[in-house]
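I'm stuck. Please check this protein.
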Amino acid sequence: MEVCGDLHGPRPPFNPVYILRLEQLLRHLLSNGEESGGSAASSRAALTWWLCGRREDPCAFEKGGKRLLQQCSTLLQQHVHPVSLLLYRRRLLGGGPFAEDSACKPTGEASVRGKDEALRDGSVLALAIEGGAMRGCVCAGMAVALHHMGFSDAFDVIYGSSAGALIGAFLVSRQLAYEGSCVYTDWLPYLGSRFLNLRRIGRALGLGCLLDGDVLDLFRSRLGTPLVNLDALLLEVLQKKQPFNFSQFQRNDLKQPLKVIASGLLSLKPVTLDSAGGSIKDMASLCECLRASMLLPGLTGPVVHLPLWTHPSATPESKDEPHASSWGPLARFLPIVASSCLPRFSAEAPKALVTEPLADALLFEAVPYRSAIAQGASHVLVLRSRPDKAPVTRLKGIEAAIEMRMARRFFLRKHHDLRPVYDFMRRRGHREIYMRDMLRLNAATNQINHLISGAYTASGPAGGLKRGPHDSERRAHAMAVAVGGTEKEAQKLKADRGAIIRGVRSGFAALWEALQPDPALREKGLEEALKIFPDDLAFSPALKGAPLPSPPPYTAEEASAHLTPEELAEHLLQAVAAVQVGGESLDRKSPEQPHPGETGAS
């Protein structure tokens, strides 16, 4: 089976922010009536004369104002995607998790923030970031664009899979535009073979030292020196060379938590790692969570163990298995255990623990929008690293043989209790999930009022993903952003600085074009990206000593703030005319219809 994308989200022929400003003004004037004073009284008078000039009854402002307000609501609901509309509204009104005043959610509604707080708009907006190894540079560019355009504070919660979790961490710590992106543009090319050494492919394929000639490696490491050295990134770069700002991350994480998605190799479903669940306590534990999410089976080292239960009287020296009836919940009190801390020839965790081995999120949730919806999000913006027009297929021939040989070695020979994961990969279950997700997200993006669920469906006789008790009841608006068909897909295992910078730019431009409210500026995404990531972009100061430039200001910031009430009303009429000339439907509301991505892939 081969699936190609058809992403063509709504691009309204008007500026939604102008309509939102007029809507906000009208609501204020109509709610306060003639008692409005100061600038509100002036605005009311100006709109009254404007209505009079259009042969409206000058004494009946309420009637004309309500009609204008209805037109505003109709335009926004029928021609602007709910996710982008919520982003515009929050940026305009100052809403989001960092707003000073919040209202409480209705009783019984789940809060992904882990608090009984909510925004006054009553919505939960999540950001879901795909990974993709080096291809994650595209999503890094999208994250920079979000920050550059002023949307960083609008999200209630951020979900990241694999490299997307690292990007999400930098977004929460607000180390953008350069500190986060230069991990891709500078550090990975600088590390070179210390981070990515393709000569190590021999051990990953179970061929010993035949390809790299390192005989001693057979005795140093049970799995072999990994092809991708995550220690170079997580320990050397993030903790020493260019320190990650964990204190700032911790402060922001209280209001805008990061949810790191990994694959549970026993439960056969996505696992969420966060500070609320006790997984992220300090920089070391954050790095272990990132390691778990980025741990490509067979390429990046041993699995990471998530402690689940403990036996109250058990000790590491105990020889007896703890009885299940005496286990107690543990999640908030013990750290994640890296397999690198375990004995040389042991695939097991310490005796007193029963653990969940974790690996890369790509197995069960490469694009983490499902977890966001299942955990209470009402709106999800999804950043995808793969170009939408790039075909997604079941691997065949030599590629399939290589993937399955690595999976067989990793899950069967080195971890004897993980056959269900191997069977899942052998059936190409992870690729089937990805194809379904692409179809579902495109449908939710292209059709404004198309709601999708966070439900998981089983794949094959042995399952792999199971539908949760409440998953089918939770539905949300989702909007995906991906680079177009003309962009060349970034290679997952190639650290070329020029190609990475081009990938960052293309991601920035794609996000800009998807969320830029001004139609006149939508096609200038690449031009804006070049201002931040020029061809002569300086290296990180930690590498070359040259200071990074200050990011240019967001020059497209709200021109609507300087428009008069009459000009806003005129823009409304122009928007209505533009929609009618474009022949767009005035009623796009429809119930969710079955979609090829829902019914299964063959």
